[in-house]
Amino acid sequence: MRNRIKLLTALVFSLAMSVAQAATNWDMPTPYGDSNFHTVNIQQFANDVKKATNGELNITVHSGGSLIKHAEIKNSVRRGLVPIGELIMSRLANEDPLFEVDSVPYLATNYDQAWDLWQASRDILSEHLQRQGLKLLFAVPWPPQGIYTQFPIKTGDELKGVKMRAYNKSSERLAKLLGAQPTQVEVPDIPTAFGTGRVDAMITSPSTGANTRAWDYLSNFNHAQLWLPKNMVIVNLRTFEGLPEKQQQAIEDQAAIAEKRGWEASKQETQAKIDIMREHGITISEPSDAFAKRLKDIGDTMTQEWLDRAGPDGQALIKAYRTR
Ligand code: PCA
């Protein structure tokens, strides 16, 4: 009898163990570093999902492109190499120009406008991704984009021939229209790119400027507020649908919370990081009248180019945005 109880206890114990081991582990690559507010936000998302699923769904964030490089993240999630990942939306501009609507200069330059634009574009972008077996969980903007240089910008003429770091098609095109020479550089590679002289200016946010210690190789930040590009978190649809209903719901709930939290964090980030840069000696300025005019003209050109590329879907999206 004693032995049977022992055996039973052992059985129950091992059963409990195997249930515990049945926890699902997901790897989540992101191109951006640990201290970045997006990464802090998705780490919080991972913690919250774990809690909400009683430890049954465990997401491990791999930051700084350490697991998968930025260029590969989308396809890796699509192919199921990893179940979930984060990337900047405008990276998919080559697939469909609608993905770079958030990087059209001066279309949406503050958080309210960026939010309206996101509401106007969310469904169509989600549908596009769904057709590829991907589910768009949430999106969070970077602070407004500006230009970092080693000299003050007066009219913009100073930028001619300057090697300018870019990160998507829009930043590349803007650099070109300014007469600069664009080079795509991922965030983790920024310090090296400046250190080796591959670039000597960059387009990015106060956030990325401060995270990459812009003061080590730059002296001026022009807070031009060109656009607010978004990061998005996507999940492999088949993997997602293979989860128990309760876990799917937990992910959706936490995604909604993470989106809200991320937008708030981004707003806070703008001024906080501008202050940090100023403390480190970076001169912060707004575009002069001449430079503002130059940027506006470039913005008009790029808006027209985008509309031509995006066709009727693009027109409809802009209309939906404008009527909000
Ligand atoms: N940081 C990212 C995207 C936009 C931003 O502010 C980068 O510079 O690549």
In short:
The protein has 324 residues and is α/β, with parallel strands linked by helices. The protein has helices at residues 2-21, 37-52, 70-78, 111-130, 169-177, 190-195, 206-211, 237-241, 245-279, 289-322; strands at 24-29, 57-62, 84-88, 134-141, 146-149, 163-166, 181-184, 201-204, 220-222, 230-236, 283-285.
Structure description:
This protein has 324 residues and is of the alpha/beta class. The protein has 2 domains: 23-89 and 114-141 and 230-274, Bacterial extracellular solute-binding protein, family 7 (D-Maltodextrin-Binding Protein, domain 2), CATH 3.40.190; 146-226 and 276-323, D-Maltodextrin-Binding Protein, domain 2. The protein has 10 helices and 11 strands. It has a 6-stranded mixed β-sheet with strand order 7-6-8-5-9-11, sandwiched between helices. Strands 3-10-4 form a 3-stranded antiparallel β-sheet. It has a two-stranded parallel ribbon with strand order 1-2. Strand 1 (24-29), helix 2 and strand 2 form a beta-alpha-beta unit. Helix 4 (111-130) packs across helix 10. The longest helix has 35 residues, at 245-279. The radius of gyration is 22 Å and the shape is globular. It starts with a helix and ends with a helix. Pyroglutamic acid (PCA) is lined by residues 88, 142, 167, 187, 204-205, 207-208, 229.
What topology does this entry show?
Layout: H1 2-21, E1 24-29, H2 37-52, E2 57-62, H3 70-78, E3 84-88, H4 111-130, E4 134-141, E5 146-149, E6 163-166, H5 169-177, E7 181-184, H6 190-195, E8 201-204, H7 206-211, E9 220-222, E10 230-236, H8 237-241, H9 245-279, E11 283-285, H10 289-322
Helix pairs in contact: 2-9, 4-10
Bound molecules: pyroglutamic acid (PCA).
